[in-house]
Every structure is written in structure tokens, then in C-alpha cells.
Design a protein that fits this description.
This protein is mostly helical. 56% of the residues lie in helices and 2% in strands. It has 8 helices and 2 strands, in the order ββαααααααα.
Length: 181
Amino acid sequence: MSFERGVASPVATLLGDYARAQVHAFLLYRLVAFPDEYEPIKGASYGMAVLRFVPRAIWKNKPLNPKVAAGSAIQGYVGISERSKRQYGLAGEAMLNFSYYGIIPAFAVFGMFLGWFRKKLATMAPTDDRFFLLPLLIWACAFTVNMELDNIIFNVLRLGVLPFMVIYFASVKTPFVSSEL
């Protein structure tokens, strides 16, 4: 929580902790004021978010998440003991990957996904069993702005695999064969 004079202020908590405003402002400041000090990672954190679930037993020399190294570099950390532990959110991860040019496309892709999701939701039949998965998907949409892609994928898998399997296997339609000849 953000504190002002030892007391958590609701405005500071909402704008600071939940909106990641101070992180985004600092990243933007560093990108504009010192453009030559940071080299964007060109989408590496998005690719590694998907590959995060490959175990080290299969991929022996799996690299660390490039988002941690990029976040440390843009904030001026130099040693391995000084690693950034910040959460960047949608805009922050876009800045780490593509500088400030990535912010608008990231939100555009997110907006197109929300439009597709709303259209799918409007065309689903009221008896469709996939309605049971909607709370998880709505949660993922709500927190996409505040979380990075690897955290979203991890939480959707962690919270959604078992309900998805139960709904999928409980909803399988079997053909009805009449015993009448």
C-alpha cells in the first residue's frame, strides 16, 4: 500500500498500487529523458510468457524471464543482486518490449480482444455450459491492465484448468440410440 504520513490514503492506493501509475511514469521518464540507455527487448517477454511452463528438465538452459532483466536495466540496476521486483502491467510491459511506441498497440490489441469477447458472449445460447467459465475469463479481462502476460497465463491456468476439464467432460454429448426397431 502507498502511505502518506503513515496512513494509507485511498487515492494513493488506487492510483499508486492498483494503477501502477508511478511505475509507468518512471518508465516513460527514463525512455524519454535517456533514450540511449535502454534497448527494448522486442517482444521477448511475451514469447517467454508462453514458454514459461516448459520445465527445466526438458529445457536445460532455459533463460530467466527477460522482463526482470529489462526492468532492472531501465531502472538503472546493475548488479545481479539488484533485481527489479516491480509489477509493470499492460502499459509497462509494452514499454519494456517496444519502448513507448508499444503502449497504444498493446491497448488496441486488448480492446479488440474485449470486443471479440463481448460478441462471443452475446451470441452464446443461454443453456451453453461455457457460461460457468465466464467468471474466470471476466477476471482475466479485468486484471489484464494491471498484470503482465506471464502472470495472466499462470493464473488462468491455475484457476481454470480443473473447472474447464470438469465442464468439458461433463458436457460431452453422446449420441442417443433408440432401442425401437
